[in-house]
Amino acid sequence: MKRLTVILAMTVLLEAMIHASPLFANELFFFRGARPVGMGGAFIAVADDENAIFYNPAGLGMIQKKNIRIGTVYQNFCWSQKIPILIGWHIMEANFSEMGINIRYIISPFEIAYLWEERVIDVNLKDITDNKILGEGKGLCNENAFTLGYGKELTKSIYIGICATYAHFEEDIESYMYEYVHGTPYKQRFETFDKKDIISISNIGFLYKLGQKVTLALTAHNIFSTKSTYPVLDDVYWIFSEKDERLLTNINLGFSYRLKNILVVADARNIFSEEIDVGSSYQHKTGFHLGSEICLKKNLALRCGYAVKKISFYVTNSQYYTKHTFSVGIGYKKKHIGFDTAITFDYRRNQMEKRVPEYFPTIEDVIYVVLIGAKYIF
């Protein structure tokens, strides 16, 4: 029974690592850019700089000058989770880190972007009674993506844009389980996944300006995507099999209001929530983003933002946690050179645990993300 418990626990550990893939977040390319991140990620109705290609390509129709930007990102978080497996409780501890670089070049009305990111995850599984390590897993994911965007002014107040992305993924996951003989641990390989994938997606966006102050926006992400193959866990037989699935189409709305040197923005993401079957259930829920930018001088801007989103968890279909994101940022521009930086803090708390604390696992962690970007305007 003890060995069966360890095997089932290791299967849960492996599934957790697989779900760390960006495909399971249904956001193949995370919304990036130090300026929009500093405003809580609310940028769909702004899209007036090189970040438009990731948020709303319609904004490319408003940009007149050529510019090139180089940006970097780093994020790290740790979480600890209590899970019940057969005859006992276990603790799963994980450390996740990500770093990347992106280069974007605008030749109005076109923009070209290249993105490279690397994600590393380390997971340990422990017995809650004696704190012995039962298993561990290590995962590495590399992502290379090329994006081409185009924006056009249809009338003096309406803009439309489209972009297409081609991405290559490489993901390696290794897991090991421990057996104890007279108190001495022996490590043995449990399961290995070596996955390479190529996927293409396309997005479309619209901007509508109501005078000089108000802008409304609509985007549809992943209106087309090729299928991706990934392993899923069978809840009945506890075995992995392969499944083909395309990314879900996300409909997003944006609003912005500008009053002199103050900009207020709001986004609603995934307004039509959908569910995708990935062995257990992964549900993409609506998220809300709020932000502001204050220009103190012609060349200095301060930013802040907040976002909230509910995401289901892989252990059970009905469980979810709430993700709160707080962000601040600063921007500086002088003549042909611009500099932006932002930092965000995520706080996640499991909601189902409050209702049935004796069964549902506890998920509580703090995540921080740091972004830095610099650009040259021709």
Describe the structure.
With 378 residues, this protein is mainly β. It has a single domain (2-377), classed as Porin (Beta Barrel), CATH 2.40.160.60. The chain is built from four helices and 17 strands. A 14-stranded antiparallel beta barrel has the order 1-2-3-4-5-6-7-10-11-13-14-15-16-17. Strands 8-9 form a two-stranded antiparallel sheet. A hairpin with a 4-residue loop joins strand 4 (133-153) and strand 5 (158-181). The protein is elongated, with a radius of gyration of 22 Å. It starts with a helix and ends with a strand.
- Strand-pairing-aware structural class: mainly beta
CATH class: Mainly Beta
Main sheet makeup: 14 strands, antiparallel, barrel
Physical arrangement of strands within the biggest beta sheet: 1-2-3-4-5-6-7-10-11-13-14-15-16-17
Portion in helices? under 10%
Query: What's the mean pLDDT score?
Result: 78
Order of helices and strands: HHHEEEEEEEEEEEEEEEEHE
Large-scale geometry: elongated
CATH fold descriptor: Porin
Low-confidence stretches: 275-283, 314-318, 351-364
- Assess the beta-strand content as a share of residues: over 45%
- The number of helical runs is 4
CATH superfamily: Outer membrane protein transport protein (OMPP1/FadL/TodX)
Tally of strands: 17
Q: Estimate nothing, just give the exact number of structural domains.
A: 1
Rounded to the nearest angstrom, the distance between the terminal CA atoms is 68 Å
CATH arch. level architecture: Beta Barrel
Q: Tell me the Rg in angstroms.
A: 22 Å
